[in-house]
Amino acid sequence: MTLLVRDQLHRVRLTLNGRPVTGRAQPRMLLSDFLRHELGLTGTHVGCEHGICGSCTVLVDGEPARSCLMLAVQAEGREVRTVEGLSGDDDTLSVLQECFAEHHALQCGFCTAGILMSAAAWLRENPSPTERAVREMLSGHLCRCTGYGPIVAAILDAASRLSGTGSSDDA
Ligand code: FES
Ligand code: FES
User: Fold this and answer.
1) Which terminus in the chain has less CB density within 10 A, N or C?
2) Backbone φ and ψ of 66, nearest 5°
3) What is the 3-state secondary structure (H, E, C) of 81-123?
4) Which segment of 2-16, 46-60, 122-136, 150-164 scores lowest on mean pLDDT?
């Protein structure tokens, strides 16, 4: 006897970049695929799909999370922020994004969204980091292009600018 099991679609309601959204996902659908294919936010990149490279990192309830290691249905009721949510409503870049641009901290850009999300959350907890601490934070991310130097410089510059304004909320 052949048992045919069809995946049901589940409704997933979450707050995405500050707005309530609803989508549908199979129980096994990854959050990364849900964001990209169901909700159309392709800024979140998918590299290894094993939790290693960090390119898929988003913020879930304010904390960095590998969206390739999380199911879409687990995002039900949560607050998710992607790289599309880092800039302001008028598309002005955040301080951190500006620093990445000014320091040429990306080449192909594949790793960039994940690094930006981790760094934005991390700077809130570490407003005056050392270079060593930045490099340790970056150990959770693989970049094949930049050699990391410009990325480190950009994050240190962002920390300096944000502490100068007394706020790291808009990293
Ligand atoms: S794609 Fe998620 S960690 Fe590499
Ligand atoms: S800029 Fe190409 S992988 Fe990081």
Assistant:
1) N
2) -75, 110
3) ECHHHCCCCCCCCCHHHHHHHHCCCCCCCCCHHHHHHHHHHHH
4) 2-16
42: its two tokens:
């392709």
Size (the chain), residues: 171
Ligand 2 atom nearest 109 alpha carbon = 1
Question: 142-157, pLDDT tens digit by residue?
Answer: 999 999 999 999 999 9
133 half-sphere exposure, CB direction, 13 A CA radius: 12
Tokens describing residue 79: 């607050």
The predicted model scores a pTM of 0.92
Tell me how far the alpha carbon of residue 37 lies from the centroid of ligand 2, in angstroms.
22
Neighbours of 75 (CB within 10 A): 25
Ligand nearest to the CA of 150: 2
Task: Measure the CA–CA gap between 60 and 87, rounded to whole angstroms.
Answer: 17
What CA–CA distance (Å, rounded) separates 125 from 134?
A: 12
- Write out pLDDT tens, residues 11-67: 999 999 999 999 999 999 999 999 999 999 999 999 999 999 999 999 999 999 999
Contact between residue 103 and residue 157 where contact means Cβ atoms under 8 Å apart: yes
Distance in Å, CA 44 to ligand 1 centroid: 10
Sole residue written with tokens 């490279």 = 53
